Amino acid sequence: MKIKVSRGEKIFQVFNYCFLSLVALICIYPIWHVAMGSVSSGTRLATETGVILWPMDFTTIAYEKVFKNPLILTGYKNTIFVIIVSLMLNMILTILAAYFFSRPKVMFKKPLMLMVLFTMYVDGGIIPFYLTLKDFHLTDNLWGLIIPFMISTYNMIILRTSFEAIPASLTEAARIDGAGHITILLKIIIPLSKATLAVIALYYGVSTWNSWFWGSTIMRDKAKLPLQSVLREILISNDTTGMEATGADAIGIEISIKYATIMVATVPILLIYPFIQKYFTKGVMIGAVKE
Predict the structure, then answer these.
(1) Given 163, 227, 232, 284, which residue has the most CB atoms within 10 angstroms?
(2) What is the average per-residue pLDDT within 140-146?
(3) Within-domain flag for 102
(4) What is the mean pLDDT of the chain?
(5) Mean pLDDT within 219-232
(6) CA distances (Å), 165 to each of 4, 69, 97, 116, 201, in order?
(7) Which residues of 29-56 are buried (b: 16+ CB within 10 A; e: fewer)?
(8) 44-58, 179-193, 223-237 — which is least confidently predicted?
(9) Is 89's pLDDT higher than 60?
(10) Whole-number Cα distances in Å, 38 to 1, 25, 75, 248
(11) What is the DSSP string of 2-70?
């Protein structure tokens, strides 16, 4: 049985599709512009202005120059190390904290939760934070990008809400059968919260991947810079050391090198995101509405 759609609804749908298509185009075009510029001739980029829809004199010289820069490869290595180690610590600590605060009978639960929430609104400041890192010998050290950022209060609250949404009857039945907290967490809570855990892992991963400030602040040795800090050096400081071209290609090559560097730093996270995107709405909203 077909549902009759009114004329106003049809007009709204057409307008909605057109508007959302325009928004999608506005979001996609900057990435497309950079991608096409990264495989275009530096000479053409220096002389042409305006919209770039297709490569101008297709060439991969910019990527060749980028991957010859040792800082790009060491930046990738440092970033991958930081992401792997920090993501494991992030998830372990966040899961444990969320489980603790999701249990109904916890002594001093509200005062402890208020103390945790207090950290979301009050910050000690950049200088005290840096001095603390310095006192603990975490400056010029990759562990300085891991240890101070091992847990996010916001992510912990999302995960706690998800854990609280799991029916208490399941955990009570497990307790009757003799299960302890570790067994309940590993066998019941975590398997039922996979969607939320995927979202939290993506939040932590993207945050770590995009982080450049503290890498640029506490690192003195360029060989220890994460990828995004290297990208900043290239884009902001115009530091293309080790990537210069010669001859005719030298004209405007800095522009295509910057475009190629942006693509090298952005593509990995763009490739991962679509596979986890389906968990976003389900993972964040689960447990948000309670009966």
Answers:
(1) 227
(2) 92
(3) yes
(4) 83
(5) 87
(6) 38, 50, 16, 21, 19
(7) eeeeebbbbbbbbbbbbeeeeeebeebb
(8) 44-58
(9) yes
(10) 53, 20, 20, 17
(11) PPPPPHHHHHHHHHHHHHHHHHHHHHHHHHHHHHHHHTS-HHHHHH--S---S-SS---HHHHHHHH-H
Q: Is 130 inside any structural domain? A: yes
Place of tokens 């290239």: 234
d(CA 50, CA 80): 36
Q: Could you tell me the residue range of the domain that residue 190 belongs to?
A: 69-239
CB 222 within 8 A of CB 234: no
Mean per-residue pLDDT, 183-205: 89
Report the pLDDT averaged over residues 276-288: 60
Find, among 196, 227, 195, the residue nearest to 210 by Cα: 227
CATH code (residue 117): 1.10.3720.10
Q: What is the C-alpha separation between 71 and 147, in angstroms, rounded?
A: 24
The predicted pLDDT at position 183 comes to: 92
Tens digit of pLDDT for each residue in 29-44?
888 888 888 888 777 7
- Within a domain: residue 149? yes
Residue 261 lies in a domain: no
- Determine whether 125 is exposed, middle or buried from the number of CB atoms within 10 Å of its CB (0-12, 13-18, 19+): exposed
pTM of the entire predicted model: 0.78
Q: How many domains does the chain have?
A: 1
- Which of 227, 259, 241 has its CA nearest to residue 83? 227
Torsion sign (Cα): 125, 128, 130, 133? negative
Between the CA atoms of 260, 261, 262 and 266, what dihedral angle is there, to the nearest 10 degrees? 100
Residue type, 241: T
Contact status, residue 42 vs residue 252, Cβ threshold 8 Å: yes
